[in-house]
Amino acid sequence: MKKLSGVVVVVLLAATLAFAWTFTPRPLPVPDAPGPQLPPPPAVRATIAVAETGVLESNALFAYRGGGFEPRPFGMDVFVVRHPQGTLLFEAGFGRHLHEHLQSVPWLMRVLSKVQPATPLDAQLKAAGLPPERLAGVFLTHTHWDHVGALQDLPGVPVYLPRVERDFIAHGGEATALLRSFGELNYRLYDFDGPPYAGFAASHDVFGDGSVVVVPAGGHTPGAVVAFVRGADHDYALIGDQAWQREGVDIPAEKPWLSRLMVDDDAAGVRRNLVDLHRLQQANPRLLVVPSHDRRVTATLPRLAPAQS
Q: pLDDT digit string (tens) for 69-94?
């Protein structure tokens, strides 16, 4: 019996050490070759502003391998992109029914974090002179609960997705349960019918002028995307949850094993995307890589302001 107890202790100790190791620093290997260049600036530029819909309080430990215990507010931010042909939202953040929506969140994530809502997105948009009927649509980087909540408050607005992500909504189980609960929204499917872009295999030029370009970046979810917005002062890469915090791209470093287990569909795909984004960032000084949840980054962007009367 003592021998058996000793074996159990050894096994538990080994498992604990192995688990702890998954949180230790481990930068992803990066090729020596220089990263790709963005295409020349387009004639038409878009503008971008941020609408904050709330915060999920966590810490860096769960955000990237090597993160410490310092608190990190994971912003639930929506990007309002204005263009002469129309205004788009990228992401939909928290909605008015957040308390109900939280029931679809994995239990462990609810235990490890605390949520604080902000002014509902639809109210912010109305104050900015952008009621639902004035929006050209919503593009989602992916369809997890914290990126889709306010779609319930924007009836009739087109929701743009690649076909593979639309299929993921139907078959994604718990990961897409919240979006399925909204019923059949005004989904608009798009194809990656354009050439390779910024090192990614294909592209979709939203307005046809190079100012807003979406590329496939499956991994976090099968149909996850990265959106490039070409502005006057900066170019932006809206990367969704490829990285939760900028260190994921800067180092680059993937999420710890526990976080990957909860949220990433294809960890190897995310690793490839992080390395590609790291190289792209190094090669393009004007490019600001924007994780959806890093308030240190999104705080540098203009805020969505009320319309002047």
A: 999 999 999 999 999 999 999 999 99
Angle at CA of residue 265, ends 263 and 269, nearest 5°: 115
d(CA 309, CA 302): 20
- Segment 214-251, tens digit of pLDDT: 999 999 999 999 999 999 999 999 999 999 999 999 99
The candidate with the shortest Cα–Cα distance to 278, out of 255, 232, 246, is: 246
Please give the average per-residue pLDDT across 292-303, as a whole number: 97
Q: How many angstroms separate the CA atoms of 141 and 165, rounded?
A: 9
Amino acid letter at 243? A
Q: Is 266 part of any domain?
A: yes
Phi-psi region of 93 (alpha: psi -120 to 50; beta: other; left: phi over 0): left
According to the model, what pLDDT value does residue 277 have? 98
Separation CA 213–CA 229 (nearest Å)? 7
Angle at 84 between CA 83 and CA 86, to 5 degrees: 65
Instruction: Please check whether residue 62 lies inside any domain of the structure.
Output: yes
For residues 95 and 34, is the Cβ–Cβ distance under 8 A?
A: no
Q: Which tokens is 141 given?
A: 């980087």
CATH assignment of the domain containing 44:
3.60.15.10
Pick the closest to residue 236 from 227, 244, 225, 245 (CA basis): 227
